[in-house]
Specification:
554 residues; 8-stranded parallel beta barrel; 16 strands; binds phosphoenolpyruvate; binds magnesium ion
Length: 554
């Protein structure tokens, strides 16, 4: 037996044969051509076909993984419309009188080098997209089809790395697991794999070393391990683990329809996080009690220009109506840092995570903020809306926000447009500054929601985008947990309620601690709702409170 270890990206256990995915390398034959016009026409028709193919892939991806995740194919389409890219290919054809395949290959190399040299991690990752798009063009030009799948029987796919277009093109019924040598947790491919709910291991160094193709294997997406030619003992152990997980999942289904109440009668509101209206299906399927975080910036990320008030109104109305009077917390625009939107034309920053992002953009450009607030207030009559503001650090920001909201309300009243008078207002606690002064902030607000992803990076000075940060980004660090406790106390002493919507909310090892702190709401990825409900219903807070508080807060 050979054991290869990597990093888990999506849990689950799969047994099956290994299929080594190797893309047919495009060895491009350089050819001299007579007429650049004919060659450019050939390139243009391949480009059109590639755009068409990407449109089909986009529609397929929307159905399988939702609009936000399908967006990558629109980005690829946009790359094929990029004037610099097109011009470079045409110039190479004309100047060197060589075939389109070679011109695309040369342009691709130049663009990849350019992207790789960029400071911005997001832009560096785009080099993989340029390669993917160029590869598609070359395959069309050289009359080779892009490899769909693979195998008649379900397989564990082993690859160096997978492009988003490859991942989504696979016939899902034939994929047992993905195991890749490369990859990063925040790559589009990892996100797609999670949305498809396929066990996935990345960073499995050595998985391509020797001829594993066709061998039987077990992929453990919980521990991030691939066992090749597993021995009897491992087969037995993993079979038992798989059976146990299936049993647990069945048992979890019985918790649907139940409230998340502890043994000693404390109810905690258990909600889900979403990125767009499409995700509401998973929220309802997993019986979440509300939406604790709607990342509204996805509306902006999915759009080629500022989404209009009416577009936003329609999206908010849809989510509120589908949730039928369950609370929906919509977070106002949180772009900047890793979430860049071209049409905002933000100046380049040395430290974008600490720069003009989220509420700072909204306060500097109140026109954009007002459009969103108008859409939110108009939609408020269709359900139980709460609004929260991201990246708050100071009291004056809240005062300014409240002033802008008053203006918006006056405008709507003057126009005779109805809005709910009971919208709760809250803010994210994502900075140590907000946590430490939460007693002051609570005077103006109904609730807080702790964004542990950012709160952790700012408290520990550990970049959440850096894959090599390892133990320096300890999500259970005492400093972070103490800050959450401070926020809970300050909220309750000042008449506000408090939730957690960062990834830490789904850490079941900490559920007891959050209950002991008196956290009122947890908002997690939809598939984590039932496991946490189980933990809540098994806990007697009065019995564990003192022990867990001293264990974690020290
Ligand atoms: C957070 O920071 O914890 C959070 C929920 O916001 P995001 O992950 O979108 O930055
Ligand atoms: Mg955040």
């Amino acid at each position: 037996m050979i054991t290869v270890s990597g990093k888990s990206v999506c849990s689950g256990i799969a047994f099956g044969p290994v299929f080594v995915f190797s893309r047919e390398e495009s060895t491009i034959k350089r050819r001299h051509i007579e007429s650049s016009d004919d060659e450019i026409a050939r390139f243009e028709s391949a480009r059109e076909r590639a755009i068409e193919e990407l449109g089909t892939l986009y529609n397929k991806a929307i159905a399988e993984v939702g609009e936000a995740n399908a967006m990558i194919f629109q980005i690829h389409q946009m790359m094929l419309e990029d004037l610099d890219y097109i011009e470079s290919i045409k110039n190479i054809i004309t100047d060197q009188l060589i075939n389109a395949e070679t011109a695309v290959g040369q342009t691709c190399d130049n663009f990849v080098q350019m992207f790789r040299a960029m400071d911005d991690a997001y832009m560096r990752e785009r080099s993989a997209d340029v390669k993917d798009v160029s590869e598609r063009l070359i395959k069309i030009l050289s009359g080779r089809d892009k490899g769909a799948i693979v195998s008649d029987e379900p397989v564990i796919i082993v690859a160096d790395d997978l492009a988003p277009s490859e991942t989504v093109q696979f016939d899902k019924s034939k994929i047992l697991a993905f195991v890749t040598e490369g990859g990063s947790t925040s790559s589009h491919t990892s996100i797609l794999a999670r949305m498809m709910n396929i066990p996935t291991v990345i960073g499995a160094k050595g998985v391509l070393d020797s001829g594993f193709g066709g061998k039987s294997a077990i992929a453990d997406g919980y521990t991030g391990t691939l066992y090749i030619d597993p021995d009897e003992e491992t087969i037995e152990k993993m079979t038992a683990k798989k059976r146990e997980i299936e049993k647990q999942n069945e048992l979890l289904q019985q918790l649907k329809g139940q409230k998340s109440v502890t043994r000693d009668g404390r109810h905690i509101e258990l909600c889900a996080n979403i990125g767009n209206a499409h995700d509401v299906g998973a929220v309802l399927k997993n019986d979440a009690e509300g939406i604790g975080l709607f990342r509204s910036e996805f509306l902006y990320l999915e759009s080629k220009d500022y989404p209009s008030e009416d577009t936003q109104f329609a999206a908010y109305k849809e989510v509120l109506s589908k949730m039928v009077n369950k609370r929906v917390i919509i977070r106002t625009l949180d772009i900047g840092a890793d979430k860049q939107v071209d049409y905002f034309r933000m100046p380049k920053e040395e430290n974008p995570a600490m720069g003009i992002r989220a509420i700072r953009i909204c306060l500097q450009r109140p026109d954009i903020f007002k459009t969103q607030l108008r859409a939110l207030y108009r939609a408020s009559v269709y359900g139980k809306l709460a609004i929260m503001f991201p990246m708050i650090t100071s009291e004056w920001e809240i005062l300014k926000i409240l002033e802008i909201i008053e203006d918006v309300k006056k405008e709507l009243e003057a126009e005779g447009i109805a809005y709910s008078k009971s919208i709760e207002l809250g803010c994210m606690i994502e900075t140590p500054a907000a946590a430490v002064t939460s007693d002051i902030l609570a005077r103006y607000l109904d609730f807080f929601s702790v964004g542990t992803n950012d709160l952790t990076q700012y408290t520990l000075a550990a970049d959440r985008q850096n894959p090599d940060i390892g133990p320096f980004c300890d999500t259970r660090h005492t400093a972070v947990l103490r800050l959450i406790n401070t926020v809970a106390q300050n909220a309750h002493n000042n008449g506000a309620w408090v939730g957690i919507c960062g990834e830490l909310a789904a850490d079941t090892e900490l559920t007891e601690l959050f209950l002991a702190m008196g956290i009122d709401e947890l908002s997690v990825t939809p598939s984590a709702v039932l496991p946490i409900r189980k933990k809540i219903t098994e806990t007697d807070v009065s019995k564990i409170k003192d022990e867990v508080l001293s264990k974690y807060l020290k």
